[in-house]
Amino acid sequence: xxxxxxxxxxxxxxxxxxxxxxxxxxxxxxxxxxxxxxxxxxxxxxxxxxxxxxxxxxxxxxxxxxxxxxxxxxxxxxxxxxxxxxxxxxxxxxxxxxxxxxxxxxxxxxxxxxxxxxxxxxxxxxxxxxxxxxxxxxxxxxxxxxxxxxxxxxxxxxxxxxxxxxxxxxxxxxxxxxxxxxxxxxxxxxxxxxxxxxxxxxxxxxxxxxxxxxxxxxxxxxxxxxxxxxxxxxxxxxxxxxxxxxxxxxxxxxxxxxxxxxxxxxxxxxxxxxxxxxxxxxxxxxxxxx
Length: 290
Fold this sequence. Notes:
By secondary structure, the protein is mostly helical.
């Protein structure tokens, strides 16, 4: 609960800072005079639009992930493999100081993900492909990586970042649309809605680069967390090397791609939610600092 309160307070602080900065610069009056837009109402609207979707997505993240992957939650282990999986997650969760997550398995190529609004009631899921292609030490490293995401509060952090980005996108797309479409009376013209929608799409694409950068940064920290839980970076390095060989196949549904263990890179590297596997291995081996 403390993390959620901190999340909300931080978001309110961001909106307050925007308000103060624009007030000091006199831009709030300029926007009102030039466009006829009520700046305060627009900022409040942008905040509600920007954060409502992000928060709802966070609260529904476990249900959405289960539905999109067809993940089967292990209520009672059916065999030794499932029993080992549950026991391993429990051991790692204890080391991380978090509550026992739900453990699930889904059909698909090698990958894994963790999600949930609260660190003491999260979900950790692994694919059948990952369980079949890795030895137990490598699977444990991947599980440690996902547990580290939960312990670090990465789901809430990404929601915070997405909400801030959304607020900026909504606010500035409408401000610029108002300026561009204003008529002789100084008020927004009939093209306002179309222009604001186009700008929102363009700004949203650019903003996704920022979100992807933060997502890539947290992967290094989760890798280090796995190394800490297992007492050595070697299992995580081996798991990453194994994943590197199947990275092109190990994709997740678009809605939860940022939650996984691996992602594509290349020409669209700026939009990639995960760093290249070589960089992650180098960071774990101490060849570079992250």
